Amino acid sequence: MQKFDAIRPYSDEETSAVIQRLVHDREFLNLIGRIKSPGAARWAPAMLRGIVSYWLRRRFGGFTRIDDLQASLSGYVGELVGNTTTRVTQSGLQNLEQESTHLFICNHRDIVFDPMIVNFLLYNQGLKTTRIAIGDNLLENRVFAEMMRLNKSFVVRRSMTSPREIRDAYLMLSDFINHSIETHNGVWIAQREGRAKDGIDRTDPAIVKMFHMSPKKSGLDFQTAINRLSIVPVSIAYEFDPCDLDKANELETRARTGAYLKAEGEDTSQIMRGLTGFKGHVHVHFGAPIEDAEADPKALVARIDREIHSHYHLHPSNLVAYQLREAAAGRGPVEAGLFASLAAAASCTSQALEAAENELQKRLNACEAAARPYLLDMYANPVTSALNALSTADAST
Predict the structure, then answer these.
(1) Contact (CB, 8 A) for 240 and 317
(2) What number of other Cβ atoms are within 10 A of residue 268's Cβ?
(3) Do residues 250 and 260 touch, judged by C-beta distance below 8 A?
(4) Max CA separation in the chain (angstroms)
(5) What's the order of all strands across the beta sheet hosting 85-91?
(6) Burial of 67 (0-12, 13-18, 19+ CB in 10 A)
(7) C-alpha angle 149/122/14, rounded to 5°?
(8) Among 262, 267, 279, 326, which has the highest number of CB atoms less than 10 A from its own CB?
(9) Taking Cα atoms as reference points, which of 276, 339, 347 lies closest to residue 110?
(10) What digits encode the pLDDT tens for the residues 44-85?
């Protein structure tokens, strides 16, 4: 694995040393303290650091294997999930076999919670957790980088400028992903670079083509190489996004000025908000493994997108946002029965829709007036995508 040292996760042999660094790291202890006891973190940070360090050393200091560490952390992850959601549901996971290895390609809403909830569900089903693709921009926070690499994360390098650097980085990434699958290590990767802040989930064709770069050097055609990866399209749907105001403001700024400059520490603060903020009902759908891939990357991308869109669990918040947007555009009330065939939409009660509208109005009121259409879009666009996927499926039958 030496050729992958620049991007790979930490190994079992490195686990103990990394844990020892973290349990004595001031910044890491402050981070854990804010999660465990926000009040004490404000009023007695030094004392809390000592308590947290002692607790971490006692609880995790003896681990030497990543899988054992993750098993021990599963209870705390479950507590975090339970405290920030009303419930978590899944569909399709029962179709994956215990000994199977897959490349999970997923829509992207939250920096850390997306792969965390996928691995949490896999673990609870008795399946192996995955290696996680993260952008190198997240490595700017040293402590976060240590935590993620200890949690099976590997680096997607995005900061290159020359075409040759970009090609070499993609080739190494392709090689690492294919090597991971060949050695029975599943992989989670987002369908595109960055979160879909506008709620439009589209797979980047460059990512799908990247999967083939390494096998292509060995003479494998695209279709055979993709079938070996056993791609599973994954759709994650949050009832409410803890970072929705931040995303709406960013989109409005980009539209108005043509650019958006992140503040120092913005990624870290949004990671914390995404982890600890309220999400309501979260549903994750695991598609059937793709073992009969199309021979053309463009056709495969369209198939992945249809899978994600048609199985996206539409919450009352999505339906209400779609109705509000239609009304704001002067298109009148949504016709009765429009949502009847969409995933989960037909089962939404009038009480649930009313509660969702009240919560959505609170979020719209907390948003700058110019950014409100963008916030509405991020909740409404999954409905549009689902309707388009449904009409495409009907046209092909």
Answers:
(1) yes
(2) 16
(3) yes
(4) 66
(5) 85-91, 280-286, 231-238, 103-106, 187-190, 131-135, 153-156
(6) middle
(7) 25
(8) 279
(9) 276
(10) 999 999 999 999 999 999 999 999 999 999 999 999 999 999
**Bridge-based pairing state of the strands 280-286 and 231-238:** antiparallel
Q: Residue 173 is encoded by which pair of tokens?
A: 């990434």
- Residue 394 — pLDDT band, cuts 50, 70, 90? low
The structure tokens listed for 108 are: 């992207």
Residue type for position 163: P
The residue written with tokens 């719209």 in the block is: 364
Q: Give the residue-averaged pLDDT of 216-220.
A: 95
Domains of the chain plus CATH, in order, are: 2-23+61-310 (3.40.1130), 316-396 (no CATH)
Only one residue has tokens 């929705």, namely 244
- Provide the 3-class DSSP secondary structure of residue 309: helix
Cα four-point dihedral sign 264, 268, 274, 277:
negative
Cα 152 to Cα 123: distance, rounded to the nearest angstrom: 14
Which two structure tokens, joined as six digits, stand for 85? 């959601």
Burial letters 275-310, b for 16+ CB under 10 A, else e: bebebbbbbbbbbebbeebeeebeebbebbbbbbbb
Task: Show Cβ contacts of residue 58 under 8 Å, excluding neighbours closer than 6 positions.
Answer: none
